[in-house]
Structures are given as C-alpha cells and as structure tokens.
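Hi, here's the filled form for the chain we discussed.

Project: internal
Contact: R.S.
Residues: 110
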Amino acid sequence: MDDEKTQTPEQQNAKFQKEVMLYLRNLAAWKHTFSEGIKKLNNRIDVIEIKLCEILEGTQKLGRACHQAFSQTKEVINALSEEAKSTREDLAEYGGVICEDTWCGKVRVV
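And the returned structure, exactly as it came back:
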C-alpha cells in the first residue's frame, strides 16, 4: 500500500492498464473455453438426435409389424372358429345317426 502512495500517476495508470489487460485476457480465454465446451455439447446433441431418430424409426417399424401380426392372428382365430363350428355341427349330425343306428333291443349303445 505504501508503494501505491509513492507511485506517480503514470505508474498507477500503467499498473491499472496491466490489470485490466490481464482481466480481459482471462475473460477472452474463458470465453474461448466456454465456446469450445458449447461446440462439444452441440455435437453430442446432434449425435443423440440422430440416434433418437433411428430408434423412433425402429419403434414405428416394430409397431407396424405387431399390428400386422395381430391382424393375421385374428384372421387365423376367426377361421379356426368357423372350422370348429362346422366340425361341431358335423359331429352333432353324425352323433344323431350313430345313436339311431345303435339300438340293440332296448339297450342304447353310444
């Protein structure tokens, strides 16, 4: 502090300019470092967006494939249901014929 009192105004001005220049240099270095970090983050975000689009596309394809599989399963179940109904009707008809033709005396053989 005693040095500051004994310094001339030119020396004080030079010291102030030196401190301001150091501050500005540090500020510029910080800005550069910060900008580089932002660029890296933007690059990572771009990569994540690309991967997210790929995942979205795959999920949509999976959804369409599931829809198609469920539709095909529904068609198969409906066809099997119709066949089962037809088979039941045929068996009922054949069962009636068997019952009528299997009377031995008074005992009914089924």
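Let me know if anything looks off before we file it.
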